[in-house]
């Protein structure tokens, strides 16, 4: 079966997904697109030589009975409304991160998915598919460095769009580490604090503080520190180091050129964009999603529940941005529906955020 896909949002990431679905992966065909910028949708059809309908909006695209799966690749703030509408259909849903930009929005999605007979949503947390991060996790899980005590990570962008806000340092950027770290450590967050170091003179966006430092603590006691630096100019880099009881693990940098040593000098290229750095991870996550849809089986990748955990943690971080205080996080147990695809359950407790007194 060829999975028929509708793409909602044809900006940089929407086009990258259309490209991989059309030219790289197997088993899918993009048959419909839409974007609030109609010309952007038309351009995607032209540029990728698609045999696809251009719909005026997400609502009309979602009514097309020939579409098996939708890719929601609009602005983060627009995901919730589209995903909720998509849940009224029988289509599978791949939504880019964040699932929603508020914890209430993420909960509305989870609540609605829980009324269905099976999971249909996968969230684009592609870090879990990166071969370097996976290899690091595999080593960590062998116990070779003992228990993880401290994690140090950096998320560096050369620059950001003019509409990038201070909150987006969390909901758009840190959200990747928020999802990655509890999966990597097989642990749960108990608190988060954002600290603002000296402000960079490279910041152009009103209200944006850059860089920012996030400190997360976990139930097992690991402390995770993440540097978010989005106006770094020199390149795009994601760094990760796990310090254990008896050793350390560092993330290898995949996809870069060779290291040149000459004239008492050493040089190597630095990537400038997420598009190339994570290309293998994007291809793997999307192929896996398509293969599941082809079998009419629920996605096995990051779920709406993972998106909800990320939204709770991001909401706590957004709160900490305001006063630089530690915010406690309390995530209730995972509903059965998200643990076992064959046993849906509506037992579901609301989660809380509490600020340290
Ligand atoms: P972009 O600004 O290049 O494109 C967004 C597009 O969505 C624009 O063309 C805009 O007109 C369109 N749009 C906005 N609201 C819409 C709506 N309601 N209906 C239809 N179209 C709408 O941004 P981008 O870089 O392509 O990012 C898109 C999404 O992908 C964001 O959620 C972002 O967080 C995510 N993203 C994920 C990764 C990743 O590593 N997983 C990387 C980049 C972007
Ligand atoms: C972008 O939206 C992404 O998701 C990239 O993966 C991330 O590294 C970048 O910081 C975000 O702005």
Can you walk through the features of this model?
The structure is a single chain. β4 (about 70), α4 (about 80-85) and β5 (about 90-95) form a beta-alpha-beta unit. Helix content is about 35%, strand content about 25%. It is globular and about 55 Å long. α1 crosses α9 (about 280-295), α5 (about 105-115) runs antiparallel to α10 (about 305-325) and α7 (about 170-185) crosses α10. It has 11 helices and 16 strands. The model is unreliable at about 340-355 (pLDDT under 50). The chain has an 8-stranded mixed β-sheet, covered by helices on one side. It has about 350 residues and is an alpha/beta fold. The structure holds nicotinamide-adenine-dinucleotide and (2R,3S,4s,5R,6S)-2,3,4,5,6-pentahydroxycyclohexanone. (2R,3S,4s,5R,6S)-2,3,4,5,6-pentahydroxycyclohexanone binds near residues 157, 172, 173, 176 and 274. (2R,3S,4s,5R,6S)-2,3,4,5,6-pentahydroxycyclohexanone binds next to α7.
In short, what is this structure?
The chain is built from eleven helices and 16 strands.
Q: How does the overall form come out from the CA principal axes?
A: globular
Q: Mean pLDDT score, rounded? A: 93
The run of helices and strands is EHEHEHEHEHEHEHEEEEEEEHHHEHE
Low-confidence stretches: 341-357
Helix coverage percent of residues?
25-40%
Distance between the termini: 56 Å
Strand content: 15-25%
Structural class: alpha/beta
Question: Within the largest sheet, what's the order of strands?
Answer: 12-11-7-10-9-8-15-16
The radius of gyration is 20 Å
The biggest beta sheet reads: 8 strands, mixed
According to DSSP, the number of beta strands is 16
Give the names of the bound compounds.
nicotinamide-adenine-dinucleotide, (2R,3S,4s,5R,6S)-2,3,4,5,6-pentahydroxycyclohexanone
Instruction: Give me the number of helical elements.
Output: 11
